[in-house]
Amino acid sequence: MSGEPTNLPTGGSDNAPPSDALDTALDAMFDEGETEQSNPDNSDKAPATDGTETDDAFEENGEETGDEGETEGDGGEPDPDEATLVTLADGTEISLKELKGGYLRQGDYQKKTQEVSNMRRDAEAKVAAIGQQEAAFSQQHTQLQTTLDGLVDYLASRLPEEPSTTLAMTNPGEYTRQRAMYEAAVGELQTILATKKQVNEQGQQVAYQQHQERLKAENDALIAAFPQIADPAKREVFNKGILDTATKVGFSVDELNTVADHRFLKLGYYAQIGLKALEQQKIGKKKVDSAPALASGKPRPTVNTSSKALQNFKKTGSAQDASKALDAFDWS
To answer: Residue 95, SS3?
Structure first.
């Protein structure tokens, strides 16, 4: 190849015509190919072995190779949604792909917002239901205690006197009868007193369980209102802020420890925001009051004066109105 000319011929010469040279080159290429295939010594050489291994590898991973080819082919094709333009009400043109993406994002945002709203509504409903249960139980328990107290008073008023030992010696039969009546009345009274004690103990136990359920429901409602406080570290900061705010307005720690209603905690949180806003307002007012006064200078013309002069110049186009329009502005 080194002896062949590097430039193609541009005119007539002693060289063979271009068509003959092309045929000669093609014949030489095919002759070389036939020589390599007909040579039995080249059948075990590395190129043939590499080609076989490549084919085997392709057959083993044929499915993956085909998938990659299809993926590359799909990636090269234009997305019809991206090429399709949609005109909005304000005249803005966006692609259908962007419109779908925005719709999906908006739908996802609305879905999450609705989920949070439902969580808050369910938590508030649970708190209200527990409150109704507590009120109903308290009313029933109070009525039962009132009934038992009345029954105890009635039995105590009807309790006969205990017979004396003198009666036992003078009239044993009458003593025995009065003694039996007295012990029967005392037994009824003791039964009612035991029932009252049991009702009180059961009432305290139920009230404690309801109180624990209420605390949990109130806590769930508070987390539904402020999801960030599900993190213990953020909850600690949240509680400290409410505590500081409550103590500023006169509440004691003992009073705050008795608060179970999450709405009071929400009130304390927003009161904290209000107090901070007032403090920032005071700081801003103090900075304004302490700022140096502006130096008195030439009063600048009002916007209306300059605008009016400029409008007159636009109407008349005279040099006099142009001079007035220029004089209306402060160029210092």
So the answer is: strand
